[in-house]
Design goal:
Helix content is 35%, strand content 13%. It has 22 helices and 20 strands. Strand 8 and strand 9 form a beta hairpin. The chain is globular, with a radius of gyration of 26 Å. The chain starts with 19 loop residues before the first helix and ends in an 11-residue tail after the last helix. Bound molecules: 4-O-methyl-beta-D-glucopyranuronic acid (GCW).
Length: 671
């Protein structure tokens, strides 16, 4: 096992400096297994740089002991910690410091690896005061990223669908990259924030990519080999039509015996090649992808067939709930895209097996900067649910805009589907999945500050109760180590509120979209208004918003349990930030904030653009305090963010001024 030396890419949150505290110590690594070897190699590399020592046996003295509880005679200090700690879960670890020795104990090698990265996050304080034994365990077993990478460059979507960070780290122009060192480095970054699974290819599975399941399986195996030393299992997006397009069968009917046999045999071959393969991801009957509806079968039938093929090998299927009519008639006011996932899936609760996981986007539409939480999450108590987030910034500035998303995810995770006192989304979700924002870019994520979103997703997937502001500081401290002031505080100020800033200058009050069709960047208020996509705002001279009430609208509010069903139904109670998602209101409607809807639109759009100007001014002050290339990249992107925010401001304000004829109460210039 060698630590990947990446010279042509930014170190992200693992610069050498992050290992200084460990690299200057005398360390004992006790335990066997591939991931224990990784831990040893990491410590050895840090010691080679900073002058410390690492041993696999002996009496010490040691400053740091990283040990498996099964590793035979533990040094007395570690044995004492073990007695205090009690049982430790498979990926968990216990951290303590006593008698001048820092001890990390785990019952399995994966726990040791996460314990090591915990020390990296702590830095020097891990070796200072005594600490009682603290136990750290992930909240969920699987913490997963989905890549929407293609093998062959797609004529419209490119190498990575909704990718804003260059090409794919796996494939280039139709072939697997020769040098996969960066994939290994990626695995290392992911392990350091707690992620342990990746689906490597796009859920829209095109002809070339379909073959990863069969004759291109060696490519999947090669990627898996790079990620394995960091405890990451590989999953594959497969096409539901695989028995036809790869197997030559006349049907893909999930209840057909030949089809079922084909999947069983094909899956067995996958496991012969990749014994720790994670499983399949499926987008079926969605945006043109094939699925069980063609055979009059349900999504439970489809998922069940794949779950059965995977079960003997310990694999899982992630079945996406993103199923809706993308060819709707905009004149038809009865069809509501927001209703679709619930209408399709809620009746199937209890029909997905133990190794089938229903993967639900956090909102009912499509990764907008503001949506209510999907009602599917409350509706399927008998189903394993993965809540899907989007780290790639499709609708949140495409990695040209600073938009730190963890505060939005915090709101989603804290939402109580049965009311503020009850269980939260974080309690209900079996696991968290997010669409990755990584490509072959120098900074991994295009915008260097977009790395924070990837890091924060991993940390929240590990512990969904973490505070986004604390995660942000953790990320800043690691990435810009030693991050002196004013660097630390300035970055925090720029990023912490950036999602709300983004919300202010884009679509108002939860109505969503208003983006340019197709690529989804920049404003176009009516861009989707007369299209088949089901994403409308219904603005006219009198008002704006979508009536989703039971009384007079699409009835979507009825998909929520109480109290939300009534809260969202009620014009008086509906929270301001979601008002236009649920109600069509006159421009003069007065919000809880005291402002009218039209004045709110003007005020937030002026404020949002001003906040971006402030952000840019803050960044200018950091010149000379961060790497000049990174500074220049962010500066250039902030110029673009400001240009774009002003364009949003002016288009949205002008649009609503022209529709409503209501002037700005503060008489600012609206073009
Ligand atoms: O947000 C939409 C994107 C599509 C994507 C789809 C999905 C992969 O615009 O590009 O397809 O969601 O989640 O399947």
């Amino acid at each position: 096992m060698t630590i990947p030396e990446l010279t042509d890419v930014h170190a992200a949150w693992l610069p050498p400096e992050a290992f200084r505290a460990i690299g200057t110590r005398r360390t004992l690594v006790l335990g066997e297994g591939a991931l224990a070897e990784t831990v040893h190699a990491e410590v050895a590399a840090a010691c080679a740089r900073y002058g410390g020592t690492v041993r696999r046996t002996g009496d010490g003295p040691f400053d740091l002991v990283l040990a498996l509880t099964t590793a035979g005679p533990l040094p007395p200090v570690a044995a004492a910690v073990m007695a205090e700690a009690g049982p430790i879960g498979e990926e968990g670890h216990v951290l303590a410091r006593r008698d001048g020795v820092t001890v990390v104990l785990a019952s399995a090698p994966a726990g040791l690896l996460y314990g090591l990265f915990h020390l990296v996050r702590l830095g020097e304080p891990a070796f200072e005061a005594a600490r009682p034994a603290e136990r750290h365990e992930p909240a969920t077993r699987r913490r997963m990223l989905d890549h929407w990478d293609n093998i062959a460059v797609h004529p419209v979507m490119g190498q990575v669908e909704r990718g804003y960070a260059g090409g794919s780290i796996f494939w280039r122009d139709g072939v697997l990259r020769d040098d996969l060192t960066r994939v290994r480095g990626y695995g290392r970054l992911l392990a350091a924030c707690g992620i342990n699974a990746i689906a490597i290819n796009n859920v829209n599975v095109h002809a070339t990519e379909a073959r990863l399941l069969t004759d291109r399986l060696d490519e999947v195996a090669a990627i898996a080999a790079e990620l394995r030393p960091y405890g990451i299992r590989v999953h594959l997006s497969v096409t539901f039509a695989a028995p036809i397009v790869l197997g030559g069968l006349p049907t893909a009917d999930p209840l057909d015996e030949d089809v079922r046999r084909w999947w069983a045999a094909t899956t067995a071959r996958v496991y012969e090649t990749i014994p720790d393969f994670g499983g399949y991801v499926v987008k079926a009957d969605s945006e043109g992808q094939p699925g069980p509806f063609a055979y009059g079968r349900s999504h439970a039938d489809g998922a069940g067939m794949l779950a059965d093929a995977l079960a003997p090998h310990g694999g899982v299927v992630h079945w996406r709930a993103f199923v809706y009519d993308h060819r709707q008639d905009w004149r038809d006011r009865s069809t509501d895209r927001a209703r679709a996932a619930y209408d399709h899936f809620a009746p199937l609760d209890g029909r997905f097996g133990d190794n089938a996981i229903l993967q639900v986007k956090y909102g009912p539409m499509d990764f907008q900067p503001r949506e209510p939480v999907s009602p599917v999450i409350a509706a399927m108590p008998g189903t394993r649910l993965a809540v899907e987030l989007q780290v790639t910034q499709e609708y949140t500035g495409q990695q040209k805009h600073v938009c730190y998303l963890a505060p939005m995810w915090r709101e989603v995770l804290d939402f109580g589907p049965w009311g503020p006192e009850g269980a939260t989304v974080a309690d209900v979700a079996t696991e968290f999945v997010a669409v990755s924002n990584v490509g072959d870019d120098l900074y991994w994520t295009g915008h260097p500050l977009a790395q924070a979103n990837l890091y924060a997703f991993g940390r929240l997937a590990w512990d969904p109760r973490l505070d986004p502001a604390a995660i942000l500081d953790e990320w800043i401290d690691l990435t810009f180590a030693p991050s002196p002031e004013p660097l630390r505080g300035t970055l925090h100020t720029m990023m912490d509120g950036s999602w709300r800033t983004y919300e202010r200058y884009t679509a108002p009050l939860g109505v969503g979209f208003m983006v340019r069709p197709g690529h989804h960047y920049g404003p176009d208020v009516d861009g989707y208004e007369y299209t088949p996509w089901g994403t409308y705002h219904f603005a006219d001279r009198d008002g704006v918003g979508v009536d989703r009430t039971r009384a007079t609208g699409t009835g979507y509010t009825g998909q929520y349990p109480q109290p939300w069903s009534d809260v969202y139904e009620s014009l008086e109670q509906c929270p301001d930030e979601l008002l236009l998602f649920f109600h069509h209101v006159p421009y003069g409607h007065v919000l809880h904030s005291g402002s009218t809807v039209i004045q709110h639109i003007y005020d937030t759009h002026f404020a949002g653009a001003e906040e971006v100007a402030d952000m840019r001014a803050h960044w200018d002050k950091l010149e000379g305090l961060v790497d000049p290339t990174l500074h220049a990249r962010v500066k250039e992107l902030l110029d673009e963010q400001l240009r774009c925010a002003e364009e949003w401001r002016d288009q949205v304000n002008a649009y609503f001024f022209r529709k409503s004829g209501v002037p700005d109460g503060r008489a600012r210039r609206i073009p």
